Amino acid sequence: MSTRSARSILPGFGLSLGFTIAYLSLIVLLPLSAVFLKTSGMTWAEFVAAVSSPFVISAYKVSFFASLAAASVNAVFGLIVAWVLVRYTFPAKKIVDALVDLPFALPTAVAGIALTTIYAQTGWIGRWLAPYDIKIAYTPIGVFIALTFIGLPFVVRTLQPVIEELEPELEEASATLGASRFQTVFRVILPQLTPALIAGTAMAFARSLGEYGSVVFIGANLPMKTQIVPHVIYEKLEQYDYRGATAIATVMLVTSFVLLLLINLLQKWSRRYNKI
Q1: What is the mean pLDDT of each run of 10 residues along the chain (276 residues)?
Q2: Which residue from 209, 207, 212, 216 is spatially nearest to 255, judged by alpha carbons?
Q3: Residue 100 Cα to chain centre, angstroms
Q4: pTM for the full model?
Q5: Among residues 208, 190, 207, which one has the least CA distance to residue 80?
């Protein structure tokens, strides 16, 4: 009797599960499977040649290292921004909170143009750096700044609900028991925020890997210097080299999936560790 009652609380599980699987298959699995099927028509030698040319290897390095660096910076400063927005009250707080979502709202091309306007040698900031021979636009530093810009909201918005649920009494108890501020932060607060911080950083990293519009403008797509993988794929498609494009896309898909899987396992381990 109790089993039937438990099952009847949320009816329609079978139908909902079937709809979920069908929807995900149509939206996610079907397009991805098309990429793998297109790539499967290549021989191993053709596949290796397509994904390991010097230009492609250089694009891999730019995309992955810039995305990793941007996600790491956002992990630190996104945590600080989220903490300030939740724990402190100050003038224009709502405006600052709304500014965090600006990278979400702006088209990537607009973001790229704005960043280029600011950091070019004749831009608002670039003109002050030019006398010191410091260049940001059209360099890997510009790519890094663009990826940092578009990734920040993922970290902040993931951490904010978790910080709101933190009980200030735990921090007060830690201080009462003689813990220093450093110990309170690293032994009381951070362990509770770590799973959310890992999740937000992973989303920022994944978003950066697929970024195109803003990076193309501020990076100028310079081969062997600032060219990213999405633009290499775009160039392959323009040249009607569909197999080459899908081969590179397959490498990105597999690598991104493995990295996100490892990050999810790390997040799961972190949650389990904090419960011990």
Answers
A1: 50 76 83 82 88 92 93 95 91 91 87 90 89 90 94 93 85 79 82 88 89 88 89 90 90 84 76 63
A2: 209
A3: 15
A4: 0.84
A5: 190
